[in-house]
Amino acid sequence: MATANVTKIDYYELLSVTKTASDQELKTAYRKLAMQFHPDRNPDNPAAEAKFKECSEAYSVLSDPEKRAAYDRFGHAAFQGGGGGGSPFQGGGFGGQDVGDIFGDIFGEMFNMGGNRKGSRVQRGRDLRYDLSLEFTEAVFGVEREITVRRAETCTDCGGTGAAKGRQPTTCPQCKGAGQMRFQQGFFSVARTCPQCGGTGTLVTDPCKTCNGQTAVEREHTLQVKVPAGVEQDTRIRYTGEGEAGRYGGPSGDLYVVLSVKKHKFFERDGDDLHCMMPISFPQAALGTELEIETLEGRESIKIPEGVQSGREFRLRGKGVPHLNERGKGDLIVEVRVATPTKLTGKQKDLMRQLSETMVVSNEQHSRGLLDKMKEMFS
Predict the structure, then answer these.
(1) If you write DSSP's letter for every residue of 338-362 in order, what string do you get?
(2) 270-321 pLDDT tens trace
(3) Residue 40 — φ and ψ, nearest 5°?
(4) To which CATH superfamily is domain 268-355 assigned?
(5) In the CATH scheme, what is the homologous superfamily, with its name and number, of domain 7-87?
(6) pTM of the predicted model, to two decimals?
């Protein structure tokens, strides 16, 4: 039985915005669609619920700078992968967060998301980026590096509360700890962030002296980065939870290690294949020979047949770049170029003249052949 090929709708089209839309334009477009398709306004309407989820997914990606950049480059493929915990090379989806947590600010202004739910106070930590430069061979064979990043970590003195030792934040008197102020507007119960506590539901009257009530302090963090064999330029490796600390019980952000690969002086990479050029002399091309060439894994022999023409390519199977996260390797493709000598001794010139006299090529024959081919092309 054939399997249907389902293509996801472009996120920008879903939100009816252009690819250059600003953050505010994205938020406005999503707010309008959320109001239209929210399940509370469309009870027992599966189509509206599906549309609402699609729009929410689109906004979750495009409102995140890292995810938006990945989507602009790779499309939906940037967030595809096997089940389970996902690959560290994938940065998409909702990252395990609840929809209400991701869009709490927007939904809080439009809908009653469940009374005094404290999830709106939770703040996920910021994602971090680290640019790592690799030698060409390190990208091919893989490498392990130690890196150091500066990040905000939960203050150990106050335990992330922001209050001084032995003290605890007090309940906000204005919102009674809800973090939101609710108003009735027509059919909807509209919630807005409490202006006094900023949505936390608590107030710090005696701030921690270490973090000044910010709940986190900036520290250097060292970790080992394992670069697998076969990575390419701009490959991103995601380390979940290695970003900045979250606030009020929120999860930490992620760390994205972005790879920059230096060029090789001899080899050029095309996917998982390597290309190089090897010069040979005219006698070697005419008579044939066996040459040794340096590969990334040692020397290999290539048999050059007699009469080889300049530009002929020879393929060494399995001597290229390992396939990323798969078995097998690409190939090494060697192009031979017949080198014309620029300086000859007198004896060499005499030998070349003698050779030339025995290898007269009929220009008339070649001209007639070229003319016949041109006639075929334009007839």
Answers:
(1) EPPPS---HHHHHHHHHHHHT----
(2) 999 999 999 999 889 999 999 999 999 999 999 999 999 999 999 999 999 9
(3) -65, -30
(4) Urease metallochaperone UreE, N-terminal domain (2.60.260.20)
(5) DnaJ domain (1.10.287.110)
(6) 0.58
